[in-house]
Write a structure and sequence with these properties.
Bound molecules: adenine
Number of helices: 7
CATH architecture of the largest domain: 3-Layer(aba) Sandwich
Distance between the termini: 34 Å
């Protein structure tokens, strides 16, 4: 999968793709990430990419020209974008189902919003999907883009050592994952549930399912509806 991220702050992605699972996905050639500086596609000599919003009220808006210029220059007709995503607090709320769907795509582009956002015509004419990672306002779309790419990448076959692991994640079947424990089995008298030490895999699986349902009922009852 190829992910092109268009941003005004490329260095915000330093570190995210050079550690852990994302690093491994890139090294294995399963994931390719291009960080693209929108300023490089500015059409004026000052490299501006934003201007004052029309009408009263303060605030800068990302202009349509550099975004149009950037998208047309980076598009690859032999590997077209399956989605052009815009990160914004008023987008569709991101969830595991969207991560699953996006993990099946070949090529996605993510445009990170900033300031008061992009000129509405960008959303109307270039964007195919608008994603919010939650009902709060970030100072820009870079953190949202990182969250989206991280959650997608771990679902691509070959990225995790144990593919079953992603399938048992919280939310995969509208259930929260069961609790997990590791050694020592007794720490200061706080014991691991007996069943997990029994060696009976069938019974443990059943216990895990019961725990998942119970936790979901308690913590996220709306998922069970
Ligand atoms: N940009 C600012 N806030 C955001 C949010 N909650 N989700 C996605 N992009 C954003």
């Amino acid at each position: 999968m190829q992910v092109d991220i268009i941003t005004l702050f490329p260095s915000m992605f330093d570190g995210i793709f050079t550690e852990s699972i994302l690093k491994r996905a890139i090294e294995k050639g399963i994931l390719k990430v291009n960080i693209i500086n929108l300023r490089d596609y500015s059409l004026n000599k000052n490299k501006n990419v934003d201007d004052y919003a029309f009408g009263p009220g303060a605030g800068m808006v990302m202009q349509i020209e550099p975004i149009d210029n950037c998208l047309s220059k980076i598009q690859d007709l032999t590997n077209p974008f399956d989605e052009v995503i815009y990160t914004a607090p008023d987008g569709e709320k991101f969830n595991q189902k969207m991560a699953n769907d996006l993990s099946l795509k070949n090529h996605i582009c993510i445009l990170c919003g900033h300031y008061k956002g992009v000129d509405e015509r960008v959303r109307e004419h270039f964007i195919t999907k608008e994603i919010s990672i939650g009902d709060y306002v970030l100072s820009g779309g870079e953190l949202a883009a990182s969250v989206i790419v991280d959650s997608i990448a771990r679902l691509i076959p070959g990225v995790l050592h144990d593919e079953q692991s992603a399938l048992s994640d919280s939310f995969q079947d509208n259930l929260i994952a069961p609790p997990v424990y590791t050694r020592p089995a007794d720490y200061k008298g706080w014991k691991v549930p007996e069943i997990l030490l029994s060696g009976n895999d069938k019974k443990i699986e059943q216990w895990n399912i019961e725990q998942s349902i119970e936790r979901t009922k308690q913590r996220r009852p709306e998922l069970l509806k």
